[in-house]
Design a protein that fits this description.
This protein is of the alpha+beta class and about 375 residues long. Helix content is about 15%, strand content about 45%. The protein has helices at about 5-15, 70-80, 130-140, 195-205, 260-270, 320-330, and strands spanning about 1-5, 30-40, 40-45, 50-60, 60, 65-70, 85-90, 95-100, 105-110, 110, 125-130, 160, 165-170, 175-180, 190-195, 210-215, 220-225, 230-235, 255-260, 280-285, 290-295, 300-305, 310, 315-320, 335-340, 345-350, 360-365.
């Protein structure tokens, strides 16, 4: 099994899928890339059993075959080569691999391609096409709100709800929640599943934004196909919590404020907040917002005042400053709205103006009880 390929082209394709490789694998063969050649087309796969990524490129080859090649070693060799044709000479008897290039050659030993874990059998008629830009934006808007609790795996992923009218992405860690909805991507049927964080990050880093992504799914797996990449991932098993039930419906107290100004003020004031609770207090009276934080243990405190547009009763409410900053950083409108009912109930952050009529963003943050 011999083939010739450009060093930089191969490196680019390998780097796009190398994020799948785990640092410690239970199966040694997972430290390898699987190379498969059929009719002059090279398919390279990387897997951690839960997620598999595959990329395709054309090479010069007269025969077909497959072999597993050590990933780390191969990446290091290609990174240090200038752009030039590389000839791979593979001995299928002992799985020896020789890479010949302009001024030398490197040798390594691989594994039989037959020992590489197979991609799960996929039997699905459920599919939809969605713009890469929408998937990229949905991931950016939600992934920061996912949880890290191993005891609640369903909350460590992003919940995806598909209906003929809209697609909704939801993430929560029980302290904050994000719901991102699009009405310009419809599917033929209704379905819902929970996508793990790792494949979402891999998607985000490989999507350019101008492509169309084919999404196919069944009860246990989902496949994303775009550009020259195929990503297969196992879904998180379990029932997602009823997120609609925690979104308060009646929120008569509405603060409208410049996002950048509000964010800068929180950043400064939160420096003086308690390092455990990160508590920051918002005091709303008329058209004035007073922000304050204190760390009683070290006698540190900070206060700032901002002018704002506030419609509602005077109130004091506490929030975790880190959660507020994360949310404000993930909003891109000039103004934001913070809707509240009372100091013990969640606040809702929404964009002040809608730049896109097909997009709906809602972020919920739980309050922190104030020390009196």
């Amino acid at each position: 099994m011999n083939f010739i390929v450009s060093s930089t082209t191969l490196l680019r394709h390998l780097q796009s899928i190398s994020g799948v490789l785990a640092t410690s694998n239970t199966l040694p063969i997972l430290d390898n890339f699987l190379f498969e050649i059929n009719d002059g087309n090279l398919s390279v796969s990387a897997s951690d059993l839960e997620t598999t990524m595959r990329t395709h490129l054309d090479v010069e080859a007269k025969e077909s075959g497959k072999i597993a090649i050590p990933a780390k070693l191969l990446l290091e060799v290609l990174k240090n080569l200038p752009d030039q044709p590389c000839a791979f000479i593979v001995d299928m008897n002992n799985f020896g691999i020789e890479i010949a290039y302009d001024n030398g050659k490197s040798k390594m030993v691989g594994y039989s391609g037959d020992d590489y874990p197979k991609t799960p059998n996929f039997t699905s008629s459920n599919s939809l096409k969605i713009a890469g830009e929408i998937i990229s934006k949905a991931i950016n808007k939600t992934i920061f709100a996912t949880g890290n609790d191993d005891l609640r795996p369903v909350m460590s992923g992003v919940f995806c709800q598909i209906t003929p009218e809209e697609i909704t992405f939801v993430a929560t860690d029980a302290h904050k929640l994000v719901r991102y909805r699009r009405t310009d991507s419809q599917a033929t049927g209704s379905s819902s599943f929970i996508l793990p964080k790792k494949p979402l990050n891999l998607l985000k880093s490989n999507i350019r934004g101008d492509e169309e992504v084919l999404v196919e799914y069944d009860e246990s797996n989902v496949i994303f196909t775009f550009n020259d990449i195929v990503l297969v991932c196992r879904l998180i098993d379990g029932k997602y919590p009823n997120y609609e039930a925690v979104i308060p419906k009646e929120n008569p107290n509405i603060l409208t404020i410049d996002r950048a100004q509000f964010l800068s003020s929180i950043k400064r004031v939160s420096i003086f907040a308690n390092k455990t609770t990160h508590q920051i207090k918002l005091k709303l009276t008329g058209s004035e917002l007073a922000l304050s934080a204190e760390d009683i243990d070290f006698s540190n405190e900070s206060n700032e005042r901002l002018t704002c547009n506030y419609d509602g009763d005077d109130m004091e409410i506490g929030f975790n400053s880190r959660f507020l900053m994360e949310m404000l950083n993930n909003m891109d409108t000039a103004e934001i709205r913070l809707e509240m009912s009372d100091p013990s109930r969640a606040g809702l952050l929404t964009p002040g103006t809608k730049d896109n009529e097909h997009e709906d963003v809602l972020m919920l943050v739980m309050p922190v009880m104030l020390n009196r």
